[in-house]
């Protein structure tokens, strides 16, 4: 496939089929990941060059060399870039969450494991919660409303880690006999989840040291853990390209006869 395509088959009454748009789900997922990564790097570099005093300020007034994600994305003009990229990031994330739910639902049905639908639904709503709280920490900065920002961030962390664990469980349930590709995807997911858990412990420890004990460099180590968690989280979600390597997103109009020949994972009528 080369880029987006728009094609139309020969018309024969009501049996016409028209494909308005078709593109790779894999490419969509890669763009979805590239947006926050690139904007985060730009925000970090520009904030450290032009607004160093603003991003290193903490309530303890202690020595600090690494700013937090909230610091570099909460100042102007960096916050506008970050918010725009997150806005474009969230849409595909919602689509991917629905695709995963439909995909696993069909596999559970195929393996006669309908009793595990509760786990699938739990995993899906954890994913939605993670996406919603990502929007929350993005659009409600710590400079504007720290108490709310802090609570949303905690919810984001909990839902993110819980989603990873639930996702690993449902993946293992539906893929009893894994192919090499599925096994590789599962191992990567476990690696990113384990790394996220370990860095989350570090995040909590350094947060306590900074917030309550005001140790020098504690906030810098907190920030390092925060960046690692962000990249591990994005790495975990990037494994979608291994789970759906050849699938395509298609907008089309076709007859009922043509529809019966398709396997539909996600459909909006």
From TrEMBL:
Keywords: Membrane, Receptor, Transmembrane, Transmembrane helix. GO terms for cellular component: endoplasmic reticulum membrane; Golgi membrane. The chain crosses the membrane at residues 30-50, 80-99, 119-140, 152-171, 191-208. The keyword DNA repair does not apply. Residues 28-246 form the CWH43-like N-terminal domain. One of its GO terms (biological process) is GPI anchor biosynthetic process. It comes from the Eukaryota. InterPro entries: CWH43_N, PGAP2. It holds the Pfam family Frag1. This is Fgf receptor activating protein, putative. It comes from Pediculus humanus subsp. corporis. The gene is 8238390.
């Amino acid at each position: 496939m080369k880029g987006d395509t728009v094609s139309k088959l020969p018309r024969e009454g009501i049996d016409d089929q028209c494909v308005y748009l078709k593109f790779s789900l894999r490419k969509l997922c890669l763009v979805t990941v590239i947006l926050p990564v690139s904007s985060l790097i730009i925000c970090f570099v520009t904030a450290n060059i032009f607004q160093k005093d603003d991003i290193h300020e903490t309530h303890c007034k202690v020595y600090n060399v690494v700013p937090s994600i909230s610091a570099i994305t909460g100042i102007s003009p960096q916050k506008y870039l970050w918010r725009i990229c997150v806005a474009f990031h969230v849409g595909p994330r919602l689509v991917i969450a629905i695709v995963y739910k439909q995909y696993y639902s069909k596999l559970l049905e195929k393996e006669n494991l309908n009793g595990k639908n509760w786990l699938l639904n739990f995993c899906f709503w954890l994913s939605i919660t993670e996406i919603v709280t990502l929007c929350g920490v993005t659009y409600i900065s710590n400079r504007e409303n720290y108490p709310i920002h802090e609570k949303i961030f905690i919810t984001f962390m909990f839902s993110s880690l819980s989603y990873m664990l639930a996702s690993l469980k449902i993946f293992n349930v539906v893929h009893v006999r894994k192919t090499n590709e599925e096994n590789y995807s599962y191992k990567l997911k476990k690696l990113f989840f384990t790394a996220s858990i370990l860095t989350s412990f570090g995040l909590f420890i350094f947060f306590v040291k900074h917030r309550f004990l005001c140790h020098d460099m504690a906030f810098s180590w907190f920030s390092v853990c925060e960046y690692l968690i962000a990249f591990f989280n994005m790495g975990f979600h990037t494994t979608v390209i291994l789970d759906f390597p050849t699938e395509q997103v298609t907008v089309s109009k076709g007859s009922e006869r043509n529809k019966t020949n398709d396997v539909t994972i996600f459909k909006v009528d």
